[in-house]
Write a structure and sequence with these properties.
The chain is α/β, with parallel strands linked by helices and 276 residues long. It is built from five helices and 17 strands. The protein has a single domain, classed as Nitrilase/N-carbamoyl-D-aminoacid amidohydrolase. The longest helix has 17 residues.
Length: 276
């Protein structure tokens, strides 16, 4: 079992429709993070393509099948630099496209998650919602669950991933102005209520009138912010995460007098409305 890992969150400003330039920038950031000792590097939602497309037809040329050329390229870079990588892209599947998170490592493609909860915003107005399941990927860096942006506003998803063994939840996102509360408070809540490490990696910049907030952060399972980026700065943030500690769900403050376990004290028999 992995005890601790060093992770990196890359807050950057991708350009709409400029896939080659975005991937070139990503490759440079990956190399830098690997040089700084990161074992897992995370990029924002839709980092390859940008986000604010105005129609399915406009977005379609900037989507690609998985596996495909883009995922193969980053799997190759992961192998060269001996790191694991999570990034967002538009996935082409027949006539549909999905807003997807891709997980690759030195041995190739690990998995793909398709965004389930869709806001009326950007390309999500035209992408097809994923249909799950919510999967936890067991990898050398640890047990990792993926979700995307508005997924984070649905606490049921984070809880399911935790119940399936996640030690780290990764939220790749494109939070624009108006999402400040999610950006500043939601992530700590998801971490502490599930006793799980949490990374939220957002983008910056302005795209078709939307200004993105940045404020990426890495949080431990106690709800402490270990690293954070400001608005409007391209930056790599780093932290060491205690993966083994996320499995020790019983918190003992005073033995026999003040102990908490947010999993064993659940009452699923009373939660029936959540399935409706």
């Amino acid at each position: 079992m992995v005890e601790k890992i060093k992770v990196a969150g890359v807050q950057m400003d991708p350009e709409l429709g400029r896939t080659d330039e975005n991937m070139e920038k990503m490759a440079g950031m990956m190399e830098r993070a690997a040089g700084d000792g990161a074992e897992l590097v995370v990029f924002p939602e839709c980092v390859i393509s940008g986000y604010c497309f105005e129609s399915l037809e406009e977005a379609r040329p900037f989507a690609q099948k998985i596996p495909g050329e883009w995922t193969d390229r980053f799997a190759s870079l992961s192998q060269q630099q001996h790191i694991y990588l999570v990034f967002g892209m538009l996935e082409s599947a027949g006539r549909d496209i999905y807003n997807s998170a891709v997980f690759v490592g030195p041995d190739g493609l690990i998995g793909v998650y398709r965004k389930v909860h869709m806001p009326c915003l950007g390309v999500d107005r035209f992408t097809r919602p994923g249909d799950g399941p919510f999967e936890v990927f067991s990898t050398p860096p640890g047990k990792i669950g993926l979700h995307i942006c508005f997924d984070g506003s649905n606490p049921e998803m984070a809880r399911v991933l935790k119940l399936r063994g996640a030690e780290l939840l990764i939220l790749i996102t494109n939070w624009p102005e108006g999402a400040e509360i999610s950006c500043r408070f939601m992530c700590q809540t998801r971490a502490v209520e599930n006793h799980v490490n949490y990374m939220a990696v957002n983008r910056i910049g302005t795209e078709r009138g939307f200004r993105f907030l940045g404020e990426s952060k890495i949080i431990d399972f106690k709800g402490n912010t270990l690293a954070a980026a400001d608005r409007d700065e391209e930056k790599i943030i780093y932290a060491e995460l205690d993966m083994a500690g996320a499995n020790q769900n019983r918190i003992v403050n005073i033995p026999g007098k003040y102990e908490l376990d947010r999993l064993s004290t659940r009452r699923p028999d009373l939660y029936g409305d959540l399935a409706n």
